[in-house]
Structure formats: structure tokens, C-alpha cells
Amino acid sequence: MTPEIVVDHREKAHALLNADAEKILRLIRVQMDNLTMPQCPLYEEVLDTQMFGLSREIDFAVRLGLIEEQFGKNLLNRLEKELSALHEAFTKK
Amino acid sequence: MTPEIVVDHREKAHALLNADAEKILRLIRVQMDNLTMPQCPLYEEVLDTQMFGLSREIDFAVRLGLIEEQFGKNLLNRLEKELSALHEAFTKK
């Protein structure tokens, strides 16, 4: 009963959000590889801005009915864990 | 040929984005009615954050194929014009 094209919007929303989370991780890794300190206020600001942007996209996708609220929460939680692991690895260097 | 439910996602995306733009305008009007000065850095920050959030939603909707890029641009332009009219009206008070 579910038209193909609807499934496509849902799948695309999930794929885009996962890709955006991955992009944030990559950005932070690049900053660390280039030795931009996590204590730097600019680092915090970039990260906050990116996380806010992603959370707005997630919220929008939930309101559109394209993703479950829980998927969004899990994505943000996982990203935060990965970021804090990166942060920890960096400060221990 | 276009399934109802797809049209619904598109319509919903447009409606949500229009509503979010309207919410920003309302927020700014409330700030002005309560005499929070537009020169206040907090005002600028709130506005910047809200505009960034909306532009991320718009970008996401474009990438999902739910809205045309031009619709997003028009929405942001119109909002910016309305905001600057509000701002002008306020500073002339």
C-alpha cells in the first residue's frame, strides 16, 4: 500500500541526517588533526552551531513525519558520545 | 499519478517553513513590544540563531526534494524584508 516514492522520502531523510552527523564528526576530526585545541572558544562555537543545525533538521524531519523522534534522539546521543571520545583522545595526546 | 501522501509531505514542508518564518517574526515583534532594543547584542544573537535554524530547515527540505530552492530563497528574502521593516519602525519610535 505504501507508495515507493514515500518510502524514498523517509529513506532519504534518514540518509541525509546520518550523513550530516558524519560530516560534523569529520569536521571535528579535521580540526583536531590540525591541532586546533578543543579549549579554543571557536571550536566550541563551531561545534555548538553544527549541533544546533543538525537538531533543527531532525526536529523538522520529525514534524514532517519522515523519521521517528527516537531515531533523532539516538542519532544525537551517538554523535555526542563519538565527539566526547574524540575529545578525550585528543586531550590525552 | 502523484500519490496523495507525497503531495502531503510537500504541502506540509511548505506549511511548516512558512509557520517557522512567521514564528521568527512574532518573536521579534514580542521583543520589540517589550522594548528590548534591537541594538542589544542578545537580540542580534537570537535573530541570527533563528535565521540560521530556518535556513538549515530550508536547505534540508530542498535536499529532500520537498521544496524548490527558489521557494526557500523567496521565503528568506521576504522574512528579511519584514524584519528590517519592523526594525525600522522600532528605531523611529
From TrEMBL, chains A, B:
Q: Which family does it belong to?
A: Belongs to the UPF0358 family.
HAMAP family documented for this protein: UPF0358 (MF_01560)
Coiled-coil residues are none
Write down what this protein is called.
UPF0358 protein AMD01_02360
Q: Name one Pfam family in it.
A: DUF1507
What's the source species' lineage? Answer: Bacteria, Bacillati, Bacillota, Bacilli, Bacillales
- Species for this entry: Priestia koreensis
